[in-house]
Each structure stands twice: as structure tokens, then as C-alpha cells.
């Protein structure tokens, strides 16, 4: 994978949220003004991710851990999807099961039943906030023997029946759209992990983000339809976002002063120190990682 020098999208979003809320710390005794990310830039992030996931879906790969924390920014500020530790290759699974007779009514090349108790799928790495583990009975678990799953990004069928597909990735993409619109907030902030598992299959959905364009929230809602067959494909999502980008460009050309917004090209991240850097307008400031 190519080197993504700008760090994680989630860090940039949260840094921008701190700027919007006036939470940037004093730098060398002086308060440095920090500009927010433009709506068009945020939509551009979403478009990059949709384009990347369209490619992944075309390769019949299910990511299963799509979230803003698993999106990196390259030197041009383009989003790159990372962390395929939980991904599955549907073609390989189909080939490995070819010798096993599967009832026609239950066979699908685009779905995968995940066994939560299978040790072979355990993920031995640290998971960030909001990435709770889901055990067999919805309780905590030993990560050496049970997999940790990103339940706040999981679709109802994944939470209920442990079924993963390209459609469950589409659901997670909708949650990523919400993360982008809220500048890195944690999904379902008022719900515990156990409540998410219980309430999402019953219809709970993230609330509309403040100042969110109607067409973006409409796309989010379509990705969160309970019936996976009614969710948009990544290609449809990319086209929708491309149209929105064009509209943003027209509106900003007519009414906006783009100098009011942050230039992402100077952003980088130091994971060891928990810092993010802007080598142009901003020298350095702390950020929640």
C-alpha cells in the first residue's frame, strides 16, 4: 500500500471540529486561527471513499470494518481505504465451498455468514473508541478467542444474523458519511454498545447532522434501509456524490470565499505523539486521536 502521509481522516475531522468549536489550544503563547473544512471538501472525502469502495466491491471483497478511522489521506488529500484485517474475499470463499453441496435457496455469492465463536477470525489489535466487541451473548469477550466487531458501523442483518455482504459495507459507508458530516463524532453517542445491538435492528438510526445538505442525508437514509436489496450500490452512491460536488462547486463559485476554509494539503499526523500538524497556515495543535 502506498504511503499516506496525511494520516487518518478521523483525526482531520476531529481537528476541524475543534476549530469550529473554538477549542484549538494556544501555540507558543499565541492563539492561531484555524479555518473549518469546506462542505465541498467534506463531500469530496465521501466521493473518494465511495469510489474506493466501488472498486473493492467490484473485486467481490467485503471490507467489514469501513469507518473514518480506517481511511487515510495521501499527500494530495485524497482518501485511501485501509485496514483489511477483517475483510473477506467472496470469490475465494465461493471456490473453497464449491465441493460442498449448498441448498439453492440459501446460496448467495455476495453474502457470508460469520461465526462469532470461530477463533480463526479473532483480531488481535487495539480498537478505537466506539469499536466495541460483540460476544456470543452480546457481552464483553477475550479478543484472543472471539472477534471484535465494529458494532456501531454494522447493519441490522450483521448484528442479528452475523451476515456480511457488499450491502453491509454500504450500510457502513452511510455511517462514514455521518461521521464526515459531524466532523468525527461517534455514531449513536447516547447508546451503549449493547443498546446499539438491540435498537438498530428495531429501527434506530443516527440523527440528522446539523447543517447537513438534504441530498446527503437522503443518501445516508438510503444506505440505512433495513432491506439490503433496497440500499444503493457504491456506484450509485458515487454518482450521487459527484452530482452534489458539482452543485457545491457552482454555489461556491457564486457566493463563497474559499479562503475561509482550511487547506488540507498541509495536514499531517504524528500517531506516536497524538498530534496533528499543518505545515502551512497552522504550525501545530493537539487533536483527539
Order of strands, widest sheet: 1-3-4
Main sheet overview: 3 strands, antiparallel
What is the N-to-C succession of helices and strands?
Answer: EHHEEEEHEHEHHHHEEE
| Gyration radius from CA atoms, angstroms | 20 Å
Oligomer: single chain
InterPro entries: Kinase-like_dom_sf, Prot_kinase_dom, RTK, Ser-Thr/Tyr_kinase_cat_dom, Tyr_kinase_AS, Tyr_kinase_cat_dom
Protein name: Protein kinase domain-containing protein
Organism: Culex pipiens pipiens
Pfam families: PK_Tyr_Ser-Thr
Describe the structure in brief.
By secondary structure, the chain is α+β, with helices and mostly antiparallel strands.
Topology:
Layout: E1 7-8, H1 9-20, H2 39-58, E2 61-62, E3 71-73, E4 79-81, E5 88-89, H3 90-96, E6 111-113, H4 156-161, E7 163-165, H5 166-181, H6 193-199, H7 214-223, H8 234-255, E8 267-270, E9 275-278, E10 285-286
Antiparallel strand pairs: 1-3, 2-5, 3-4, 6-7, 8-9, 9-10
Helix pairs in contact: 2-5, 2-8, 5-7
Walk me through what this model shows:
There is one protein chain. With 289 residues, the protein is of the alpha+beta class. It is 35% helix and 10% strand. Helix 2 (39-58) runs antiparallel to helix 5 and helix 2 (39-58) runs antiparallel to helix 8. The protein is globular, with a radius of gyration of 20 Å. It starts with 6 loop residues before the first strand and ends with a strand. Residues 127-146 are annotated as: Disordered. Residues 130-145 have a biased composition (Basic and acidic residues).
Task: Output the keywords.
single chain; 289 residues; alpha+beta; three-stranded antiparallel β-sheet; disordered C terminus; Prot_kinase_dom
Amino acid at each position: 500500500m502506498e504511503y499516506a502521509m496525511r494520516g487518518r481522516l478521523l483525526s482531520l475531522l476531529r481537528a476541524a471540529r475543534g476549530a469550529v468549536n473554538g477549542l484549538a489550544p494556544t501555540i507558543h503563547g499565541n492563539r492561531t486561527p484555524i479555518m473549518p473544512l469546506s462542505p465541498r471538501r467534506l463531500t469530496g472525502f465521501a466521493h473518494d471513499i465511495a469510489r474506493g469502495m466501488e472498486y473493492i466491491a467490484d473485486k467481490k471483497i467485503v471490507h467489514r470494518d469501513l469507518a473514518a478511522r480506517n481511511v487515510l489521506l495521501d499527500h494530495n488529500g485524497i482518501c485511501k481505504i485501509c485496514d483489511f484485517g477483517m475483510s473477506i474475499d467472496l470469490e475465494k470463499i465461493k471456490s473453497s465451498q464449491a465441493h460442498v453441496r449448498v441448498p439453492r435457496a440459501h446460496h448467495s455469492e455476495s453474502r457470508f455468514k460469520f461465526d462469532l465463536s470461530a477463533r480463526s477470525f479473532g483480531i488481535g489489535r487495539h480498537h478505537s473508541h466506539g469499536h466495541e466487541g460483540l460476544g456470543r451473548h452480546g457481552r464483553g469477550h477475550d479478543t484472543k478467542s472471539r472477534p471484535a466487531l465494529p458494532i456501531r458501523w454494522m447493519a441490522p442483518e450483521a448484528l442479528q444474523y452475523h451476515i456480511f455482504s457488499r450491502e453491509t459495507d454500504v450500510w457502513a459507508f452511510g455511517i462514514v458519511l455521518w461521521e464526515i458530516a459531524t466532523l468525527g463524532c461517534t455514531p449513536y453517542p447516547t447508546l451503549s454498545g449493547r443498546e446499539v445491538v438491540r435498537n438498530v435492528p428495531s429501527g434506530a438510526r443516527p440523527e440528522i447532522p446539523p447543517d447537513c445538505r438534504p441530498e446527503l442525508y437522503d443518501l445516508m437514509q438510503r444506505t440505512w434501509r433495513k432491506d439490503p436489496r433496497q440500499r444503493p450500490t457504491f456506484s450509485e452512491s458515487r454518482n450521487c456524490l459527484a452530482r452534489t460536488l458539482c452543485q457545491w462547486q457552482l454555489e461556491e463559485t457564486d457566493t463563497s470565499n474559499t479562503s475561509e476554509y482550511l487547506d488540507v494539503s498541509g495536514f499531517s499526523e504524528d500517531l506516536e505523539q497524538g498530534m496533528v500538524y499543518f505545515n502551512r497556515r497552522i504550525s501545530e495543535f493537539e487533536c483527539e486521536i
